[in-house]
Amino acid sequence: MTDPRLAVVILAAGQGTRMKSATPKLLHPLAGAPIVGHVLATARALGAEHIVAVVRHERDRLVEVISAELPEAIIVDQDEVPGTGRAVEQAVAALPADFDGDVLILNGDVPLLNAGTLASLLARHRDHTATTTILTAVLPDPTGYGRIVRTADGGVDRIVEQKDADDDVLAIPEINAGVYVFGVNELRDHLASLSLDNAQGEKYLTDMVAVLRSAGSEVSAVPVNESWIVEGINDRAQLSAAAARLNALIVRGWQLAGVTVQDPATTWIDIKVTLAPDVTILPGTQLKGATTVATGAIVGPDTTLVDCEIGEGATVKRTDGTLAVIGAGASVGPFSYLRPGTVLAADGKIGTFVETKNATIGAGSKVPHLSYIGDTEVGEGANVGAGTITANYDGVNKHRTTVGSFVRTGSHNVFVAPVTIGDGAYTGAGTVVRKDVPSGALALNVAPQRNIEGWVAVNRPGTDAARAAAESGSS
Ligand code: UD1
Ligand code: CA
Prior knowledge:
By secondary structure, the protein is an alpha/beta fold. It folds into 2 domains: 3-230, Spore Coat Polysaccharide Biosynthesis Protein SpsA, Chain A, CATH 3.90.550; 236-443, UDP N-Acetylglucosamine Acyltransferase, domain 1 (3 Solenoid), CATH 2.160.10.10. Helix content is 20%, strand content 30%. It is built from 10 helices and 36 strands. The longest helix is centred in the middle third of the chain and has 21 residues, at 236-256. The N and C termini lie far apart (93 Å). Residues 11-14, 54, 78, 82-84, 86-87, 107-110, 145-146, 159, 161, 175-178, 204-206, 232, 234 line the site of uridine-diphosphate-N-acetylglucosamine.
């Protein structure tokens, strides 16, 4: 449902210098989505009539992400005047002139804040007479945040930024979360009057609190119960702390939905992953991107899957996979490397030290040991011998290998693509398959074995091998 009296402004123009990164801060990934993506998703959940995103630093990269996630968002380019106050001033100017509702301001770098908390902040703002409501938190270590200075009677007097604070203010543990509800007309009337006269030479949005108070308006502060939900991400230490928090929430959510996660501390699940009830996740597993796992499947230990689809009852052990589809009841690993385009049908097997890429392996077919299978189609019920390599690359182009249904290939084969092995065919151990093998044929191309009797005694006299041979009775 859309709330016609609500506009949400997302501040995303800052440089994020403390990340020391070529990637804009707000695009660093957190649980598989950019930091700002979490804020955009929260903004969408609030059903605001207008959503404005303010950008400047690396604006094109930001706009690409914002437009994909929230196509309806109004993009505002902040000019050269720095500061969150200027960002909001320009955002408000982009709202329709007849909008006279509430403006909820979100910092693009505070990603764990949930829509529920914001909805109650908004409800509280609307129930009370205060013209402005801000979200605060009491932090064990408030360093870096703006501090809430209260009046003797407990009201909010002003916000003082870390860099402008004296020792008394620095000792205040209550911080500004960077989330505010203003009436749009208060913003229209007063934003232009904010000065740049502070330690950072910026127009601080936080100065609105003192400005509104001296204009006779009341500002009320709502502290959150769990302070971590308002923690901002300014550097990579805060990024990893937020990632751990979010991951713990995601893991717990799946546990309550019926997924066994044996070791939450070493299990990482991205926000877009989907798991069915009765999935089991073993320690050291990372499920990334849009990975889905169907019921009864067992994944891990020590497995990383990116954008994979794991079928019902499959097992995937000590595996690294990207863009692979694993069928119901199939078995993968230990030590398998599934590259993009791997499709293993129901009840198939990709076993130990096997690498696959662009390979479809049919129902019940097995590639059990020590193989590279690339650009290949294997029919059903086939068994590919240990140590098989598809030689798919001629140095210029990639070629395809086709292995029919119910084929049995010997150990240590090389399939020199393009090549086809017909249904029900066999190949001998050590065969280098350069020509197509007809259905039902046995392909052999290894030279007959020749034994030179007594070779060791003549050519390696005095060695352990010669002694052992002599003791075994041969000369
Ligand atoms: C800000 C608050 C601080 C609060 C903290 C909460 C101000 C002046 N300070 O500090 O009181 O405790 O957030 O996390 O607001 N941005 C713009 N345009 C700019 C500058 C920043 O859009 O010119 C955006 C940034 O991209 C970011 C957000 O505003 O998403 C906050 O900016 P940041 O520089 O991180 O502010 P803090 O120092 O964290
Ligand atoms: Ca910040």
